[in-house]
Amino acid sequence: MKALVFTLSIPRAVGLKLAGTFIKSLFYRSPLAMIKLVDVPEPRLISPDWVKIKTKMCGFCGSDLNLIFLRESLMASPFTSAPAIMGHEVCGEIVETGPDVHGFNIGDIVTVVPMLNCTVRGIFPECRACQEGKPGNCENVASGSLAPGMFIGVCRDAGGGFAEYMVAHKSQIFRIPEGVSVKSAALVEPFAVALQAVLDNRPRDVEKILVIGGGVIGSMIVKAIRGLGIRCHITVVEPSTFAAEYAKKAGADHVSKEEIIKAALEVTGACAYKSLGGERILQGGFNRIYDTVGNSSTIQKGLVSMAFGGTLSMVGICNKISFDPTPLWLKLQTIKAAFGYGYNTINGTRKHAFEIALELLKDRKVDVEDMLTHTFPIEKFRDMIEVNLHKGKNQALKTALLF
How many CB atoms lie within 10 A of CB 345? Predict the structure, then answer.
């Protein structure tokens, strides 16, 4: 079968880092590139409680782009292994089930939770994170029956969805409800990321909140808030006209192409004070902030623009950051990490974020299908990468491989 495989060679990586500064296409159109389209054998069931899935669609994530361009932090390298078949935003059809799989049948259309946690790795007792309903933050992602890997797509033994077939543990799969399209199902994973960020830092109706970045996750955060019936005032700061217009359509009350601090002054009625160093700091501001960019500048401006007791969810993942923590202690603020998804108590019932996401899609409280603007056959993966490098020019939101 055809698959997009990421390999890692330190000498080639050094060469790419140097030459790729000037010619970006070297990262995906040259012999030095770490990503290749290759023929590999179809995967076999890893154990009796796994299923085999024929991929229908797999979304292309910003983390995939970062991996291809070698932008990921080396701090996470112990929790990955290569060569690995990429892709973790999957919708597919079950074509084989192990003898210990019950409740799923051949022909079922499913989406896959990509995290490779204790249960998937056959580790018992589970780690503290898994026991507390946060399997996305499992402490054993370099242990157990599989090679190191936080999730499918970065694990040598559990290939991802950039291939015609893949395998998954029974605990990873969720059946797609009737009425939910394949396109929507392929976007459940990124929607669950946004949904979990909102559930972990849930706004109240009376609050004013800010979403930094109106791309895929930023707009999905807006959709999640509205889908949960929360009536807070939402501001989105996004420099791209195309993405800003979509964020407004998604349910934002106010969309600004201006910088973060100016948006806070305009929307919240905060007071600005100028320091001796020339920087501004606000008293008052947004009650909650969801930063989908996550660099030094956005975090700094977010803290400056957030009110007393506010919480900033760091949804965007970057390498290294630096900022002045003065607003943090002056206004007793909190920075909260957001990564993956887990179990949540909703109306007295414990549900995984994927379950909640699928219910919102089924009940038509949220629509994500219109976010999928471009699809490509696997042979055109380089074109998909280039569309993602120039999203505004290509009027692109979300892209995917279609099998």
Answer: 10
Mean residue pLDDT of the chain comes to 96
For residue 61, which of 217, 194, 169 has the smallest C-alpha distance? Answer: 217
> For the whole prediction, is pTM greater than 0.85?
yes
Is the distance from CB of 42 to CB of 165 less than 8 angstroms?
A: yes
From first CA to last CA, the distance across the chain in angstroms is 12
Q: Which DSSP helix (H) or strand (E) runs through 199? A: helix 188-200
Average pLDDT value for residue range 238-255: 96
* CA nearest to 142, candidates 215, 77, 212: 77
Q: Could you give the CA distance from residue 80 to residue 172 in angstroms, rounded to a whole number?
A: 19
**pLDDT tens, residue by residue, 19-41:** 888 999 999 999 999 999 999 99
Phi-psi region of 294 (alpha: psi -120 to 50; beta: other; left: phi over 0): left
CATH superfamily for 194-337 is NAD(P)-binding Rossmann-like Domain (3.40.50.720)
Confidence grade of residue 398 (pLDDT, cut at 50, 70, 90): very high
What the block records as the tokens of 222 is 């807006």
Q: Write the class of the CATH domain 2-114+151-187+368-402.
A: alpha beta
Question: Do 248 and 235 meet the contact criterion of CB atoms below 8 Å apart?
Answer: no
Per-residue pLDDT reduced to its tens digit, 316-346: 988 789 999 999 999 999 999 999 999 999 8
Residue 42 C-alpha from the chain's centroid = 27
Q: Is 337 exposed, middle or buried (0-12, 13-18, 19+ CB in 10 A)?
A: exposed
